[in-house]
Structures are given as C-alpha cells and as structure tokens.
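Supplementary Methods S3. Input chains for the assembly prediction are listed below.
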Amino acid sequence: MRGAPIVMPKLGLTMTEGLIAEWQVRPGDEVAAGQILFVVETDKISNEIEAPAPGRIVSLLAAAGETVPVGATVALWTGPAQGGKAVPDGDPIDRPAPAPPPAPPVEEGRIRATPFARRLATLGGIALADIAGTGPRGRIQARDVQARLDPPASPPPPTPTPPAGRDPRDLRPLIAARVSRSKAEIPHFHVTADAEFDRLAGLRGDLNADPQAPRKLSVTALLAMAVARALSAHPEANAVWREGRPAPLDRIAIGIAVDTPAGVMAPVVPVTGGVHAFAQAMEAAVERARQGRLGAADTGAAAIGLSNVGMFGVRALAPIIDPDQSFMLGVGAPHVAFRLGGDGAPRPVQQVTLTLACDHRLIDGAAAARLLADIVAAVEHPLRLLATWG
Amino acid sequence: MSASRFAHAINQALDDMMARDPAVILLGEDIGKAGGTFAVTRGLQDKFGADRVIDMPIAENAIAGMAVGLAMSGMKPVAEIMFMDFVTLAMDAIVNQAAKLHFMFGGQGSVPLVIRMQHGGGLNAGPQHSQCLEGWFAHIPGLKVVCPATFDDAYALLQAAIEDPNPVLFIENKALYPMKGALSDPPPRVRLGKARIARSGRDVTIVTYGAMLHTVLAAAETLAAEGIEAEVIDLRTLQPWDEAAVLASLRRTHRLVVAHEAVESFGPGAEIAARMAHVGFDELDGPIVRVGGPFVPVPFSRKLEAEYMPNDQQVIAAVRATYG
Amino acid sequence: MTTPDAIISPPGDLALRRNQPALLDLYEQMLVIREAERNCGALFAEGAIPGFIHLSDGQEATCVGMISALRSDDTIASTHRGHGHALAKGLRLDAFFKELMGREDGACKGRGGSMHVADLSVGMLGANGIVGGGIAIAVGSGLAHKLRGQDTVAVSFFGDGAMAEGVLHEAMNIAALKAIPVIFVCENNGWSEFSPTATQVSFTLEKLAAAYGIAYHRIDGHDVGRVAELGAEIVGAVRGTGRPAVVECLTTRMRGHYEGDSQRYRDHGQPLVDPIEVARGTLLGMGVEAPALDALAGQVRDRVLAAVESARASAEPSFESVLAGVYAVEAAR
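Predicted structure tokens for the full assembly:
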C-alpha cells in the first residue's frame, strides 16, 4: 500500500491516546482541505480532525471504536505526511493494519455493551444494534435493554432476528444449569393434597360467561391468586433462603411456568390488585415468554412458582423449585373422585392434586403442610379470591 | 463475657484458648510483663505464667522461626509481631519455612502456628508503622490470612485460627483497638474462609475487610439516601477468600466495588476484581472499581495522613463509577 | 586442615576407642553415608537427580558421632548439606533416594528433594534450603521440649557459613536468656560456599559463645570415636542442666559446595583428612582384620545399591496430589 500517514493528533498536553469515534471518509474518497476525516474522543471532548490539504484516502488503518496512541498512523492518503514516515511499497508501516473484517465495512464499528446487558438482550431476543446505549461512549447497559423490552404504547415491533450464529431461544443449557443448581442447593421435600375443584371451575365459568368481562380468566390465573392469598397468611413463607438465613420479600409475586417451544420459561408476576389485574399482567408475561421476549421486569423476586400441567392430563407433578425461590406448586389434571357427603352417601367431585415442593432450609414439614392446607382452602372457597376483606 | 473494646475481644479469645489447651502459648516483644504495646495481652502473663506468655527480645526472625519449631514439636504458639511493618524481618521464617514445611515434607507434619500483627494508619505513626501488607501473604501458598472487623469476629476468627493446623496470620487494625462494643454471649463460631454479608442490598456489591468495613457501611448509608442500596460483604478471611459469596452477590447486583485500606496498586482488591471479571463476566453491568490507599508511603502529618486514608466519599464515587 | 593442639576438650575416657563393637557400628554408619553420597554424585551426574545437591563427604564423623549421642525423640534441624544428618538420625535409605529422585513415595513425596529431606517420625525436622533457616526452628523445638517438662534436647546443625547470619546471633541470645536445651553444632569445614571462613567472620565461635554466656566445646571432627564420646558428655550435660551448648566440630568438606562446583578457589595441594580412613586406622589398630572391614564395606555397597534400584523403579508423583497438599486438614501429631 502506498501512501503518506494520517496520524492520531495530540490534542492536549496530557493526551496519550485517542478513541476514533467515527470515520467520515472511506478509502477512495477525494477530500478537500478542511474536510472532516474522523472524529476523536478523549476523556475531555470530541474533536473533528480535518484534512490539512487536498488528497485521496488510500486506506484506513484503524477502525471506529478503536483507541490509538498519539502519533500512530490511522490512515494512508495521497496528501502530505503528518508526522510518522511515508510508507513505500513493501515496507512495514509503523502500525500493523487490523485484520480485515469478513464482511461489514469499517464504519460499522464495535457495539459497546456490558456483559449483563448482552445477556438480557440475548434472552429477550433483541439485537444489540437495535438498542440505544445511554452509558459512557454509547455503552448499552441493562437499563437500556430493559427499556427496549418493556411493553411500549404503540404495537410492538416484529420479532427481531436473533444475532447471527446463535438462536436465543435455545434455552436448554440455561434450563439445565438452573435446575441442576436448584437440585444441588435446595433440600427439597414435597407435601401433597387434593383440592375439590368444582367451585373454582364453576366460578371461572360464571366469570368468563359475563359479556362485560374484559378477558377470559385461565385456571392458572385463579390458582395463582389462591396461592397468593394463602401466602399472604404465611408471611414467614414469603421469603427466600439467602446466605444462611431467610430473606423476607416485601411483596407477593408468583412465578408462572410457561411451556414454549424453546423450553419452559417462568416469568414472575407480582400480585397487586384483584383477579383481573393479575390476570392481565400474567397474560402479558405469558405472551412475552412465548415470544421469547422476557425482560428484566419479568425476573423479580418471588417465593413461589406455579406449574399447572393439568391440561396435559397427568395426575400430579412433583416439581423442582426455581433456584431463586422457595416453593413450587405442581398442579395436575382435574379428575373425578368420590367423597362422602354430609348424608354419608358418596358423591362424585372434581379434584386436582396439588404438590407443593418446599425448601427445607426455610420451612419445616408442619408449616409447609399448613401452607398447603391454606392453598387448598383458597381453591375450595374461590369466592374469597374476589372478596376484598382479609 | 463482656469485652468492652475491640482489643479486649482479642484478649478474651487468647485467654479462653489458653485456658482450654495447655499447648497454646504466646511469645512476642513486651507481651507479658507490659501486656503488649496496645494492651492486647494485658493480664495474661499473670494468669498463665511466664512459661506460657513469653517475653522475647527484639528478634523477629528468631521469634517467628521459634514459633515454627514450637509448632512442629507439638505446641500451638501464638507469636506477636508488634507492628506489621516489622514482619519484613521475619519473612524467611514465615514464607520459606512456615508456609512450606507441610507441603515440602510431603504432609509429614503441620505447622499450627498463629502470628498476630496489627496494621493500618490513623494514628500518625508514619510510613514505617502504618502499612497494610496482608496482600503479600495472601499470595503465598500454605499461609492463611485473616482480618476481623467486628468484635465477634475478632474473637471467633482468632479462635478458629488457633485451632487451624496451618500457619495463620491474624491481622488486627490498630485504629480498631479502642473501638467500643460488646461480644455476643457466646460469640458465634466462624469458619475460616467464609465471608459475611454485613448489609444486604440489590444495587451494588461492595467487598471489603478489616477496619474499612466501617467506612464502607457509612458510605452505604449515604448511598441509601440516594436510592442506591449497597450489599456490603465483609470477607473476614483473605486467604482463602469466599469467592462463592462474592459471585452470588454479584449475580444479584451486577455491580462490584472492592475497597480496602491497603495500597490499591497490586493490592488484594486486584485479585478479587480479576477473578470476578473472569467468573462473573456475564453478570457485570458496569466496570469493577477498586478503592485503596494511594501509591504513596503513609505520610506522617495529621493533614496528610487524613487525606491518605481511603474514605467514604471515595467509596461513594466508586459506586457511581460502576454506573458509568 | 585441623591440628590437635587447637582442641580444648580434655582427652576424656578412651573407653570408646577400645570398644570395638561401638566403633564398628559408627564406622558402618559412616560407610553408609559415604556410599550414599557417592551414589548421589553418580546419579546426579547421570541426570537421575535433578536440581542442586550438596554432598557431605568428609563430614561423616561429625554427624554420626553427635547423633549417636541422641535419642529418637531428640530433634535435629539441619542445613542444605543434610544427607548425613538425615540418614544418621534414622531416615531410611530407600525413602532417601526416592526423595532425591523426586518419586511419589519419597520421604517427602518428591516435593522437597535433596535440600528438604525430613523424617519427623525420627525427630529429623528437615534439611533446609536457607542458610541458617533451621537454627531458630531448633531453638523453638528445644523450648517445646522444655515446656513439656521433658529432658529431650534439640540440636541445630549449621555450617561455619551460617555464622554471619543474623538469626544465629538472635537464636543464641534467646537460648541463653531463656535457658533452652538446644545444642548449636557448627560443622566448621573452613568454607562459606566459595570463600574461606576467615574472610567471612571477624570472630571465633568460641568468643561468640562466651559473649552469649553459652558453654563452648571444640572437637576434632575427623575422629568419630572422640566425637561420639564427647558428644555423649555434652548432650548429657544439656539434658541435666537444661541450658544450651555450642559445639564446634572442625571437619573437612571433601567435595565442592555443590556438585558441579569446580572448586577453583581451593588449594588442592593440601591433603584432606578423611574421617573414614581415620576410623579404619583405629579399628585396624584395635585388631580388627582388614578383610572383615572390606567385607563390611561390600555389604554396605550392596545395601545402598538395593535402595538406589528400588528408587529407580518407583513411580512419579501426580500433580493432582500436590494441589491437595498445600494445607493440612487435620493437626498432625
């Protein structure tokens, strides 16, 4: 390559290096004197570097986003040399050219993002290039990803393509790591109870039949409300085990297990307000999960998760607790059982089998049994979920 | 038990351990008759006799070397080096002998000794009496290094150090000696190598040890008023350090500051920062920032030393720097 | 290199000289050490022993004689030239060679090598790679014996080269101040590495001991019978009084500071006194037949060779085991 060097200028007494924020010319461009070639960022200001004379850009030797020592050659051109040596054919230049990137042109530059932000973006299925970074030098931080993931006022953009070479919805390694950790760290025990389901099913039917109902409530939403009601009566259970002691949570939230093609995801939905408010939040979270667009807001703290596999016909599920939680309630399919009525005669009832996985560090069998009994009671008296007392 | 000052907690631990085990003996300069330069060993010679609380001449190399020989011959010596700065005179005995004998002899025996020394500035003692050199020893395979910040830990960590079959350096901070407080009854037992969460928080993890804990907690209070909740981890042991606890905290907060009084450059914080940058890389939402002493010998004058000492404003600035 | 007129100790009881079996036993021990060192030199030259080795040819009478006065529960600390001390105190020959060759079943599992051979079970607290490194350790060990109310003693072997190290002075001061039953045995071979001792120290050990108020004895370190005799007296006195002693054994370092040392700094015209020759002469004078002594030497050669062969066949250690060996898990007794 033949050309005279354009170098990183010394823009201040103490400057030792400068960041090339952007190039404004490409190889082959004819530039006039005074035309801006590139922009340099130091820790003090941004500087536009002008061509001192006319010339033609031969090659760029440093990429946008690179930090280069003062005096190092950043480009070659046909104009007059500035510091450094003129570079005849074949001689080594005073700074080796970076390896040519496979496809993207030099101007695209490097995206700055914190590792945690990258991870959130990957999990949320967003390309970093679609996120505006508010950190130093345009660095993308977690809050920027979160802002992008939170539901906007306008309809959400189409599902973005995941970064090349990696399917963000391949969750098995993540799931594997989480459940392995959970099983290794949490001493599980399970308590099981059957709850009569007829009243809850009936209430659901009535609510959903109302033409003024804003939405159809799912069984899972009602079950989650029952769990929340029971948990509110057991504040010592609304906690997670951390660093050798219980860390109480300051609000009630339920992790909802969602089956997606990529694997199970479990957004955490806070319980604020009544059944419909919860159901609305839960619906939105479930939809985000199915689209692989969960965000930081879905990863809050919760003491309990809920996994309803009743729609698949199985009798019961003894689940694994999420590693950051203390309980997981597995719910099976409604099935007919016979109970003795008040008159001594057997009557058929619908039952669901509830299996509560518990973290034995936090809670003992008796207290867990009492909690489950209260969940059963809430399921069997579903009108209480609508009441505003207690 | 009712220790009223930090120094008493250490005295109480020595007293209780010597009463329990006749193999525990103390040796050091002016520890017996005079009770120690900072009165930490006061009363122990009267109680246990001059054969168990032994006043030695000013001979750090021999004191430390004899501690090795005592430990190899069935005793549990607790030697004192009066100022950590003087440990330089005992380096062969500590680094080439004590640290290596268990390994070098193929595990034939062990060296169950403790060397107590006090570090830190704040008393205008000048450059040769104020250094924090614990980083040197955390770097030596075979040594354990412990640095308590609280009453209970001063007692329990010394107890654990004496019971440990390895050579343990027990680092006290001279500025903490007069700190008022009380021992729990009984003080909870502590395992070497386990950190303690001194304050829970969700926004930034601040890792520290020794007297700096109190500076960091003060900074955390100020930050809380601005809505930043810091999680403060007191390492308690530097070697081995509780990497798992720090990583678990980083997973919650995604930001990390490491603060200590020792000089920042090549200090203990560098190991913690580098290790977390490696194993905790995907958790970081900002750079890891350290707070430590400047690269300057500890100056003497009141004004100079006050400006030398890492303070809560620096910790706060470091936290802010993790937000970019 | 030494002259008998420098000896201060009284001639003493010559019973040992007349006692064939005891002298024969001491002679055999010296032969074992000499043969072991000869094999070490050869193994080192062949590349089978890595690192540095410091052979003690010419100093056998000192260590065999002094250690013959000790019990197995007495403790010794040694120097970088510690093969003789270790073997005389009871380290087994096969464990010794395995260690020097870095094998997993060496005395120190191959982790220490020549300069760190040790056997705590027979009171050998280790050879030491730091000049003077064992001195304070021995004093501490002696203090431990005293605190437990036993009459066990500790011995610090060091060379004249250590006399310039500060820790020797610290240790002697403390031993005298605190009345610690430790014996400071200086094997004075006249050389501090490559320099004559006279250029390294401005004093004599005799004057130093007097300055610290410690009983001093000088012994001709070439006569194992004398060393054993006087050693027994001195050790007995230390056991009885609980006070330290200094013993200066004048001896000869027949080889270089380390194997590979060309010794250009030595005057090779001066004849070297070989303690093994001295003892052989005494035994012949007492009426022992030469062929018997030769046969003994042959047996020793075979024993040592067998130990070398077993070491050659030993396995190399694994690095995984090393990582687990940095910290003790339980206190060892």
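The two ends of chain C are 43 Å apart (CA to CA). The mean pLDDT of chain C is 90.
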